[in-house]
Structure formats: structure tokens, C-alpha cells
Design a protein that fits this description.
single chain; 576 residues; alpha/beta; Rossmann fold; five-stranded parallel β-sheet; elongated; FucosylTrfase_pln; membrane; transmembrane; carbohydrate metabolism
Length: 576
């Protein structure tokens, strides 16, 4: 090897020998520093938990659960930041109620025939009777008859002795409809004696032709006919002018009496004094309703025994698969499920809630999870004195009327059921400006509630918002003709003449998509069409344990009239 190469090699060797101690010292110092950081710095798990707790849409991880690799579902106290207004419908300003008669609708004097009188006896609680009154006006118009002020149901389970004029302003009712139907307070005397009308019943959803073929011949012969059990006895689809007449009756002619309105306004004012906005929740969770529905909520043998004992009242009722109604979305949400749905939709614990409810199965224990989520929890009993409510206590329909008004005046109306009050208020709120009305997509939410413990809160909330598209009371949420007319009065809702280009595109975002899809619409229809996937309805507003909607027999395939003839007691129990 040449001498100069050996000399260079020795040079590098001596340099490296002097650098080696320095490199070792630096490496040792770095190792010591790294060890100190491991001891003094928080663990990655603690940092992760801290980050999660700093977010409003988070899922906290319990130490034991983390060690086991499990996700713990925990609900945040806040509603989170969403790109929408929680208290209004996005495009509501482009729609308005329109129920004036067309020029083709003849004046009452041109069509009313002399000596032709129609009387009706309503059935059920306040809202079921309201549908009967509305349809009775239209039926009188179809028959070219004078209408006798309807008789309210005073004999069913509710046993409310109130007559029409004690709940509704009868003079306003008669004068407002004076150009549509001639209305009299009672039948004229015949031969100096009280005129007793012939009584009969018509099939459910009876069409114009049905009335002309079944009732008109009797009316022509007897001159006065009373239709009994008059609830849902008129077809859902009628011609435009008759549908608009329905709206004039329901949304304008039927006004509650002054004492009811004054007390209800006090309740609304007291809610407004507590908060700028409030939610009204119509909570149906009575023992009888749950028993008849056949719904099972996981309460074990105690629940099966208690509801089973109530269920024995109905000899024709057989529940073979108690889980099936829940899977199909035919059961009301539990109070806790309502609370989770609202929190996922963006309503935080600071929101004030007015609850219209009767006897809740399980009492305070059942309500506790909802109250924990929304501690600002009120009812008419908590914001009014006993002395103020005393004139109403003995009258279930008048108490129901108070709740009706407070719910109607709310910024957001929420229901856990698909009963009469839910339907009527949904239609009314559409007609008067599409105020937000949240009705649960029970079928989809049921499966989500079952699996919530296996997902993060963010995933749960996102799914809730997606599933609730089409169930929020937005304009054009439901196609014309879908659902009952009282809940979707499409004929009476007109679009503003302003160019559509000025409108915000699509409804508010509740999930990943902006648009109401055909699938969403079909889902809404499936859960809201009469005779399909509704849960039992005791006319949501009379809050006593007992009666159930006679319409449920149709939904379960049982002939209502036949059952009533076999079980007279059932007729009263199912009258609401």
C-alpha cells in the first residue's frame, strides 16, 4: 500500500478517537432528557381524553373501558354548532296558508235546501272531536243541508260534560262559516214538539258519492238525520273547494272560548318570560296506550306483568310478538329517547321545554333521564297555580285545550307519537308558516337507539340528523296527498309568487345531504299513513289512563263495528 494512503488513514483514526468521548457524552445527555420527558409529560391517553373533553361533540373514554378497548357513549351538555337555525324553517317565508273559496264555489243560499238538517255526535277526546266537527261542516255542504251545532262526546271514558259552546266560540263559528254552510243551534220544533232526528252511521273515509248514496236518501225521507260516532267519517281526498272549506273550519272557524284563551295566553307568557324560545313536547306514554299498542320497552317481567294486566281488558287483543311494533316504528319514543333525539338535533341543556303529558308509565323514574338532559322542564301545573287551573280541572277537554294552545304557540313542537294532536298541530303549523314540528322517524331511530352504546356521540348525532330529514316540518317535506289531510293540508298551502331563484336551495341540513329524497318521503308516508304504522291514539290530550283510538282496530285488521257490537265496554274505551 503506498505510504501516503497509510499516512491519511492514521490521520482520520486519531481524529475519530478524540471525537468518540464527545459523541458518547451527547448521546447520554439525550437519553437522560428523553427519560425525564417520559416521567414528567402526561400520557398520550390523558392528552387524548383532554382533547375529547374540550369538544362539545365528543365521546369520553372511561379508563377501564379504554383498557378493554371499548367505546363509552356519553351525551354532551351542549347542542354543538350547526349550520342552521334551530328555531325556524329555512324556506317558510315562501309559503302561506290560503283557504279562500274559489269563484266556482256557490254561496250558501244557492245550495241549501229547506227541511234538510244534518246533526252529528262526535266521538273521543278534544282533537278527535275537532276532526269530526271539521268534517261535519263539509258533509253538510255535500248534502246541501243545514248543520246543527255538533254535539260533543260526553259519554265516553273522558266523561267531560262540556258542550260545544263551553269549549268553542259558537257565535264566531256560525258567523265565520255563514257563507259556506247554514248553521243552527238546534233543530226546529216539529208540530210544537222537539224534533227527534233519525240516527245512523257512515263508513270511515266516506266519499262525496258515499254520502249522496247512503245519507241523502234518508235525509230526503226523514228531513233530519244525526250521524253518530262521527270521527274520520269523511274521505281524505276531496275536490279543492271542499278541502279549502275544511281548512277554513279547522284553522279559522274553530276558536276556543275566551276563558280558555286567556288562561293559555298566561301560560305562553310565563314560558316566554323564562326564555326567548321554548320547545313544546307532547309526550304520550300512558300505561293504557302502551298496553294496547303491544310495545315492549325492556322493563322485564315487571313491565310484562303490569301492561299484560291492562291488556286483558280487550278480549280481541292478542300480542304475539311484543318487539315487532317497536321494530316497525309503531311505538312512541320513550322520554329518554326523545331527549337524545333533541340533543342530537342541536338543542342543549339550556333549552326550556313545556311538556303536555298525562300519566307517564313509570312516573318520575321514567322522566328522570329526560329531565337530566333538559332540566328546564315545565308543565301547566308547574307554571300556574291551583287556583288558576281550578275552573278547568274537572273538564278534560278544556285542560287539553290549554295544552293545545301552548304547543301551537311554541317555537318548536315535538311529539313522540303519531296521535290526533300530533297530526292536527303538524297541519296547523304548516298552514301558519311552517313552524318547526319534529316528529320522530321511529323506525330508523329505534335501531339507532339499540346500537348507540357501540358508537361515538358524533356518529350517533350525525345519524339522527340524517334520519330526521323529512320529519322536521319543512316546506315540501311531504308530497301533496301523502298522509292525512289534517296533518298535510296541501290544498291550503300556497307558494309565494317571488321567483324560486331567490329561495335558499334545499331544506336545512340534518345530515350529510341537503335534499329530501324520494326514499325519505316514502319513509315518512309509511309511518304516517292512516291504517298503517301509527301507534294507538287516545287523543293525546285527555290525560287520564284509559281509552284508545278506535282507529287502531282498523290498523290491526279488526272490524270496529263488529267488535263494538260484541263488546259494548270496548266501544267506550276505544272512543278516543
Amino acid at each position: 500500500m503506498p505510504f501516503h494512503f497509510q499516512r491519511r488513514r492514521l490521520h482520520y483514526y486519531h481524529r475519530f478517537r478524540f471525537l468518540l468521548p464527545l459523541i458518547s457524552a451527547i448521546s447520554g445527555a439525550l437519553l437522560i432528557l428523553f427519560a425525564l420527558l417520559l416521567v414528567l409529560a402526561p400520557s398520550p391517553l390523558d392528552v387524548n381524553n383532554q382533547l375529547r373533553h374540550s369538544s362539545k361533540f365528543n365521546v369520553a373514554m372511561d379508563d377501564d373501558a379504554v383498557a378493554a378497548g371499548l367505546t363509552v357513549f356519553r351525551v354532551p351538555s351542549g347542542g354543538g354548532r350547526l349550520d342552521r337555525d334551530l328555531w325556524s324553517s329555512r324556506n317558510s317565508k315562501f309559503y302561506y296558508g290560503c283557504s279562500n273559496a274559489t269563484k266556482k264555489f256557490p254561496d250558501v243560499d244557492e245550495i241549501t235546501r229547506p227541511n234538510r238538517y244534518l246533526a252529528i255526535a262526535t266521538s273521543g277526546g278534544l282533537n278527535q272531536q275537532r276532526t269530526g266537527i271539521t268534517d261535519a261542516v263539509v258533509a253538510a255542504r255535500i248534502l246541501n243541508a243545514s248543520l246543527v251545532v255538533p254535539k260533543l262526546d260526553q259519554k265516553s271514558f273522558w266523561k267531560d260534560a262540556s258542550n260545544f259552546s263551553e269549549i268553542f266560540d259558537v257565535d264566531w263559528f256560525m258567523s265565520f262559516l255563514s257563507k259556506d254552510v247554514k248553521i243552527i243551534k238546534q233543530l226546529p220544533r216539529k208540530g210544537g214538539k222537539m224534533w227527534t232526528p233519525s240516527t245512523m252511521r257512515v263508513p270511515r273515509k266516506c266519499s262525496e258519492r258515499c254520502y249522496q248514496n247512503r245519507v241523502l236518501p234518508v235525509l230526503l225521507k226523514r228531513h233530519a238525520v244525526q250521524l253518530n260516532k262521527f270521527d274520520y267519517r269523511l274521505a281524505n281526498r276531496l275536490n279543492t273547494d271542499l278541502q279549502k272549506l275544511r281548512c277554513r273550519v279547522n284553522y279559522h272557524a274553530l276558536k276556543f272560548t275566551d276563558p280558555i284563551q286567556k288562561m293559555a295566553k298566561k301560560l305562553v307568557h310565563r314560558m316566554r318570560m323564562r326564555s326567548k324560545h321554548y320547545i313544546a313536547l307532547h309526550l304520550r306514554y300512558e300505561p293504557d296506550m302502551l298496553a294496547f299498542s303491544g310495545c315492549y320497552y325492556g322493563g322485564g317481567d315487571k313491565e310484562r306483568k303490569e301492561l299484560g294486566a291492562i291488556r286483558k281488558r280487550w278480549k280481541t287483543l292478542h300480542i304475539s310478538n311484543p318487539d315487532k311494533p317497536r321494530r316497525h316504528g309503531r311505538c312512541p319514543l320513550t322520554p329518554e329517547e326523545v331527549g337524545l333525539m333533541l340533543r342530537a338535533l342541536g338543542y342543549g341543556s339550556d333549552v326550556h321545554i313545556y311538556v303536555a303529558s298525562g300519566e307517564v308509565y313509570g312516573g318520575e323514574e321514567t322522566l328522570a333521564p329526560l329531565k337530566a338532559l333538559f332540566p328546564n322542564f315545565y308543565s301547566k301545573e308547574t307554571i300556574a297555580t291551583k287556583e288558576e287551573l281550578e275552573p278547568f280541572y274537572s273538564f278534560s277537554s278544556r285542560m287539553a285545550a290549554l295544552d293545545f294552545i301552548v304547543c301551537d304557540e311554541s317555537d318548536v313542537f315535538v311529539t313522540n307519537n303519531n296521535g290526533n294532536m300530533a297530526k292536527i298541530l303538524a297541519g296547523r303549523r304548516r298552514y301558519f308558516g311552517h313552524k318547526p314540528t319534529i316528529r320522530p322517524n321511529a323506525k330508523k331511530l329505534y335501531h339507532l337507539f339499540l346500537s348507540k352504546e357501540n358508537m361515538t356521540w358524533g356518529a350517533f348525532a350525525s345519524n339522527v340528523r340524517t334520519y330526521q330529514r323529512g320529519f322536521m316540518g319543512e316546506p315540501n317535506e311531504v308530497r301533496p296527498g301523502r298522509g292525512g289531510f289534517h296533518e298535510n293540508p296541501y290544498t291550503c298551502i300556497c307558494e309565494d309568487s317571488q321567483p324560486k331563484a331567490k329561495r335558499d336551495v334545499g331544506p336545512r341540513k340534518y345530515g350529510k345531504s341537503n335534499n329530501i329524497t324520494r326514499k325519505d318521503e316514502v319513509e315518512f308516508h309509511a309511518q304516517n299513513m292512516e291504517g298503517d304504522s301509527e301507534w294507538p291514539d287516545t287523543d293525546e290530550d285527555e290525560y287520564e289512563s284509559g281509552p284508545l283510538d278506535n282507529d287502531l282496530l282498523n290498523r290491526t285488521g279488526v272490524d270496529y263495528d263488529a267488535v263494538n257490537s260484541e263488546e259494548p265496554e270496548l266501544e267506550e274505551m276505544l272512543s278516543d
